[in-house]
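Progress report, Aim 2. The chain analyzed during this reporting quarter is listed below.
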Amino acid sequence: MVEQWSDRWSRRGRMAASVTRPSRTPVEGLVSFNYGDPDADSLPLNEMVEAAEYLAENRRVDALGYQDPVRGDELNEALAEKLRRDQEIDATASEILVTTGAAGGLSLLCDMLIDPGDVVLADGPAWMGATNMFRLSGAETINVELDDDGLDPALVRTKLDELESQGTRPKFLYTIPTFQNPAGVETSLERRKGLAQLADERGLLMVEDDAYFDLRFSGEKKPTIYSLSRGGNVLFFGTLSKTIAAGLRLGYMVGPEDVVQTFVRGRVDSLRNSYSAALADWYLRSGKLQTHMEELREIYAKKCHHMLAALEREMPEGCSWTKPNGGFFCWVTLPEGCNAAEMLPQCVEAGVQYIPGTGFYSDGRGERNLRLSFSALNEDQIDTGIARLAAQTRAAMSVAT
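Predicted structure tokens for the chain:
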């Protein structure tokens, strides 16, 4: 970096300059479990061509013009219908804000709610994409530990009481209750009810990120925290990146109409991606999304089960991992004495890559953890990658003992 730039960055710029991010395109021969990318062969290219032809044949020139992000028709209306059918969320089109992916919505959330010095509660571990946004906005993130049943409202209540005794009120709680990223676990029905009750009783804003809700391949569907809350204290974030195509960059936020309108006025880009929205609207209304989701569930179920079998076959004694019912991720715990971050350089040299668990905590926890994504890899890659990971784990164990 040019030397004089070190004095030009803002506080946010200095924080961004201090970190690096691995490429989404790994070098040849490297099996990367890093990113939760959709299965490439499943992307509906032909259907998107069909959607584009429909727009052209019907002279939908409006799809190439400026559009408000909140509308009473088209994609907002199609999303409202989907939310009623699939998530049992009763939302009107005017209560839905279309965003540039779910991440774009979360970025807007930070702009609208976080001031430097604020405190945010989040899952422990938590998706690093969200917590990095909180950090760049100047907030302190405090993790609330997950277990196999997800986020425990009793632990959240305890943390709220502890902060209140210090004169601190968290701005919101951020959670991924369904096939959590990175842990792969899902919050139980009773805990969802407890979290909704806690939000309403304590006036705690909860940000429910449900990017993987539609990708369940086993277990019973559970209601959203949003649908269980009665006090307008939950914002729901969804995305079409995992179910249609990540390249469309379409997500959405659901909340009270006046709150949604205030978010709109706070956007730097106050308009939406009208062409992508029109393609997605056609896709949802055509009924193709439901058929496609059935195909995706089969694809990801097969990949997940293959990874779990490879872990069981290859990993040494003392390792454990979550067994997700959906989504993209598996959370591995290494034996005592192993450090996932310290192992990573040797693993990359051996041809396998992952994200160490410490990246998903704000306080340095997660040294023995790592996240594996199975969504974008084929079975041969999974087998090769897990075998390489197992070999390096054994090497680290031998050094630890």
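The chain has a mean pLDDT of 94. The chain has 13 helices and 14 strands. These observations will guide the mutagenesis work planned for the next reporting period.
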